Amino acid sequence: MTAASMRVRVVGSSPSVPRPGRACSCYLVRTATTSLLFDLGTGALANLRLAIDYPTLDGVVITHMHADHFLDIIPLRYGLKYGPSLRDARSGRMPLWLPPGGEAMLRRLCATFAREGERDFLDEVFEVREYDPSERLAVGDLDLTFAKTVHYIDAYAIRAERDGRSVAYSSDTAPCEAVAELARGCSIFLCEAALGLSGETGDVRGHLSALEAGEMAQRAGAGHLVLTHYGTESSPGALEAAARTMFHGQTTVADDGTEITI
Fold first, then answer.
1. For residue 107, which phi and psi values (nearest 5 degrees)?
2. Per residue in 69-91, is it b (16+ CB within 10 Å) or e — as a string?
3. Strands 259-261 and 250-253, how do they pair?
4. 3-state secondary structure of 94
5. What was the pLDDT predicted at 115?
6. Under a CB-based contact definition with an 8 Å cutoff, are residues 121 and 111 in contact?
7. What is the pLDDT of residues 66-125, one digit of tens each?
8. 127-146 burial, b for 16+ CB within 10 Å, e for fewer?
9. Beta bridge mates, 96
C-alpha cells in the first residue's frame, strides 16, 4: 500500500441470514497508518483474522444496533482479553464508537455474559463512545462523516475520506437522498442490496433492491459501486445486471474477502 492509497476489504457481505460460509456486515478500511472497521456483524471476527491482527485496529464504528451489524463485538472482546499473544499487540483500550443510544443497549446485552465479580465486560478492553452523527469524527488519518438512513431503527451511513480518496458505506437503508448526498462523488460506494431483485412494499421500508442501489449510486456520481448485504435469493450476476440498468460506472458484487485499493 502506498502512503496515499486507501484499501477496503469486505470482511462480511451477508444480511441478517448469512449466506452459507459467509459472515454478516463488516468492512475494513485501511490507509498506510490507520485500520478501521465499519460494523462487526455475526461471524465477522473469524474472517477479520484472515486480514489483520485484530488488536492492531484503530477502532470499530457501528452503524446501528441490529445483530448482523454489531454482534461480533462479543467475541472480539474475548479475543482482546484472552487471545494468546495477540492481546499484547496493542497498548490501551480499543475505541468502539456506537450510534446514539447504542451504549446502553450494548451494556444491557453484555451484562448477561459477565462472570460474578468481573469488572465491566466491555471497559476492560474497549473505550466505549457514542458518536455524534452531526459532527465529523477523526480516526487516525481518516475523516468520517455520517448521514441518517431510512431504516426500521436509527441507522447511519458513513463516509471516510483521506487526500481526495473516499469510501461511503450505506449501512442499511431504503432509498434515501441523505445517503446519496453523503456518497456524492465518492471513490467507492459500499451499498446494501438486501432485497435482491425484489421490491419492498408498505409504508415502512428499510432496504434496497440492486436496481435501487444502482439508482442511488448514479445519483451520487459514485466512481465504483460495490453491492453488498445480499442473500441467496439472487445470483451475483443477476444483481450486477440489475444495478447496471441504472448505474453506468464500475460495478462489483461483494463477497467475503473482496479487496479494492483506491
1. -65, -40
2. bbbbbbbbbebbeebeeeeeebe
3. unpaired
4. strand
5. 73
6. yes
7. 999 999 999 999 999 888 655 556 678 999 999 999 999 999 999 888 776 566 889 999
8. ebeebebeeebebeebebbb
9. 60, 128
β pairing state of 35-38 and 59-61: parallel
- Return phi, psi of residue 224, to 5°: -145, 115
What is the per-residue pLDDT across 205-249, written as a single tens digit (0 to 9) for each? 999 999 999 999 999 999 999 999 999 999 999 999 999 999 999
DSSP state of 93: P
Q: How many Cβ atoms sit within 10 Å of the Cβ of residue 156?
A: 25
Residue 177: enclosing H or E segment and its boundaries? helix 177-182
AA letter at 19: R
Enter the pTM of the model: 0.95
Alpha-carbon distances of 197 from 13, 44, 47, 85, 207, rounded to whole Å: 17, 25, 27, 45, 12
- In the predicted model, what is the mean pLDDT of residues 198-204? 78
181 closest CA partner among 211, 214, 149:
149
Rounded to 5 degrees, what angle do the CA atoms 186, 199, 40 make? 50
- The domains located in the chain, with CATH, are 7-261 (3.60.15.10)
